[in-house]
Specification:
By secondary structure, this protein is an alpha+beta fold. It is built from ten helices and nine strands.
């Protein structure tokens, strides 16, 4: 048995802002994927994944909701046969490892599931996002449902607000010098502690004001520029966003990268931003000259996401 593939995702813009109802833009990242499998000779990793599926099954059994029902007997039967989630998506890296798992479980075991092939009205998308939010809360304590939604649909998704999400098109890649890339911090991040730090910061009026004004303004401008292919304007806004994040989200940026972050802003060679909740994992980079950025960051592992 091998289920369909579900891909990683990258939240290009909107980290933390989407918790507080501002805009976001997420895209599938096909370099990493996962699928449900049953193996005759499971590896240690497969056995651990199977144990986690047991915990997830118990969570779904206890879930009281009218939104979705699951074929729980079938799920339990497959778990007992040794089913696991075979995934190349790095965990704790901000690219949606739990989202892909949630999408695969919904796809295989939900009754009356909403499919990618039907006319995806705003109501259907919202319902999917709510279902995924409930399911993924098992992993993070508090989930927007966006990662599984992106993985399930395998489409770029524009988040206008909590109650307004839509599939969107992004400009096709060019063979230019500019790029979006991932920088590997080689530190595993955990979402829940980072979200807790953010929620505590939200008690501060100055922080809330910064989020509603500067952070939201530059995030919205970046999304608008990216979707419309306004590359020159995009880099100006990404630079401002990078500054705002460095000033206000320091606990989410691993310490060894504070100087590197500032160097990018000072030299205009690249601009860094959080990829997901931060605390480790990947850091997202934007550059107008990828070769130059690669040279400056040659001691780090970079992965190309998108070319301008």
């Amino acid at each position: 048995m091998k289920g369909p593939l579900f891909y990683a995702k990258i939240l290009l813009f909107g980290e933390y802002g989407i918790i507080k109802d501002s805009k976001g833009l997420a895209i599938p990242y096909n370099s990493y994927q996962g699928a449900l499998k049953i193996s005759e000779n499971p590896s240690e990793i497969a056995i651990k994944s199977n144990e986690n599926l047991v915990k997830f099954y118990n969570y779904l059994v206890s879930l009281k909701t009218e939104l979705v029902q699951f074929r729980l007997n079938d799920f339990k039967h497959d778990i007992d046969k040794g089913m696991y989630f075979d995934s190349s998506i790095p965990q704790g890296y901000g690219v949606g490892s739990s989202g892909a798992l949630v999408a695969s479980i919904y796809d295989k075991y939900a009754y009356d599931k909403i499919t990618v092939l039907e006319n995806l009205t705003r109501d259907k998308l919202l319902k999917l996002k709510q279902i995924f939010s409930l399911m993924e809360s098992f992993f993070h304590g508090n989930s927007s449902g966006l990662d599984p939604l992106n993985s399930y649909l395998s489409l770029p998704i524009l988040i206008n607000s909590k109650d307004n999400v839509e599939p969107t098109g992004i400009p096709s890649q060019k063979e230019g010098k500019g790029a979006v890339f991932l920088l590997d911090s080689e530190i595993v991040g955990e979402t829940a502690p980072m979200v807790n730090i953010f929620m505590n910061k939200m008690k501060n009026e100055g922080f809330r004001k910064m989020l509603n004004q500067d952070f939201a303004k530059y995030t919205d401008a970046c999304i608008d520029d990216f979707l419309h292919g306004n590359v020159t304007s995009l880099f100006g806004n990404v630079k401002q966003l990078s500054k705002v994040v460095l000033s206000n989200f320091k606990p989410m940026i691993p310490k060894p990268f504070h100087t590197l972050w500032q160097n990018g802003i000072d030299t205009n060679a690249y601009y860094l931003k959080l990829c997901g909740s931060g605390g480790g994992g990947y850091i997202l980079g934007f550059t107008e000259d990828y070769e130059k950025a690669k040279e400056l960051l040659k001691q780090y592992k970079l992965e190309l996401v998108y070319r301008f």
